[in-house]
Amino acid sequence: EAGVAQSPRYKIIEKRQSVAFWCNPISGHATLYWYQQILGQGPKLLIQFQNNGVVDDSQLPKDRFSAERLKGVDSTLKIQPAKLEDSAVYLCASSASGGLYEQYFGPGTRLTVT
Amino acid sequence: LAKTTQPISMDSYEGQEVNITCSHNNIATNDYITWYQQFPSQGPRFIIQGYKTKVTNEVASLFIPADRKSSTLSLPRVSLSDTAVYYCLVVVSGGYQKVTFGIGTKLQVIP
């Protein structure tokens, strides 16, 4: 079974530029998560989708971050404009459904904002 | 959502059993305890989940006392490859409530 795919793996941008990350979840998984993990901290949930609807985006900085999950499969997370404090690893995860179901994480995208 | 507290770091020698305790005093009736493991430069990986008493799989055991206010993840005979960060999470059964990762416990296995 293929795992969660993410691209790119690494990205370096200057502040005020825009960037987009892509995630392809495990086939058939209804729930998709985007996390931000700053060095030395645990993953912080940015947004959670159930199929193509948003379940939770309470910690998404909506003035600069946006995410979509068209057709309930792939998802993209965008940052525009980026700030220095956005430097982090962005993790995508998927699960069969929410709640107790095991989350499967992708390898992440390491973003460096200079 | 119940807050969890766990040690920030632990050291252990190879071959020893490691027990990581997590406190979750405000756990609710519908909450489960879940543990994830994260190696450097990788996403977290599910280890084990339980509601009460003891759960065991090929990787670890999870002990949960009757009051469920704490839980202990037990790793038998650790090796260098068990060096990782271990996260204790409280997860609500049913619905789509988010899970919250804390800082986790950084386990360093020493040769």
If you had to describe this structure to a student in words, what would you say it looks like?
The complex is a heterodimer of chains A (114) and B (111). With 114 residues, chain A is an all-beta fold. Chain A has strands at 5-7, 10-13, 19-24, 31-37, 44-50, 53-56, 65-68, 75-79, 88-95, 104-105, 109-113. The model of chain A has no long low-confidence stretch (mean pLDDT 94). Chain A is globular. In chain A, strands 2, 4, 5, 6, 9, 10 and 11 form a seven-stranded mixed β-sheet that branches. Chain A has a four-stranded antiparallel β-sheet with strand order 1-3-8-7, with no helix packed on it. With 111 residues, chain B is an all-beta fold. Chain B is 0% helix and 49% strand. Chain B is built from no helices and nine strands. Chain B has strands at 9-13, 18-23, 31-38, 45-50, 53-56, 61-64, 70-75, 84-92, 105-110. A five-stranded mixed β-sheet of chain B has the order 1-9-8-3-4, with no helix packed on it. Chain B has a four-stranded antiparallel β-sheet with strand order 2-7-6-5, with no helix packed on it. In chain B, β6 and β7 form a beta hairpin. The radius of gyration of chain B is 13 Å and the shape is globular. The model of chain B has no long low-confidence stretch (mean pLDDT 93). At the A-B interface, β5 and β10 of A face β3, β4 and β8 of B.
Question: What's the layout of helices and strands?
Answer:
The complex is a heterodimer of chains A (114) and B (111).
Chain A: E1 5-7, E2 10-13, E3 19-24, E4 31-37, E5 44-50, E6 53-56, E7 65-68, E8 75-79, E9 88-95, E10 104-105, E11 109-113
Parallel strand pairs in A: 2-11
Antiparallel strand pairs in A: 1-3, 3-8, 4-5, 4-9, 5-6, 7-8, 9-10, 9-11
Chain B: E1 9-13, E2 18-23, E3 31-38, E4 45-50, E5 53-56, E6 61-64, E7 70-75, E8 84-92, E9 105-110
Parallel strand pairs in B: 1-9
Antiparallel strand pairs in B: 2-7, 3-4, 3-8, 5-6, 6-7, 8-9
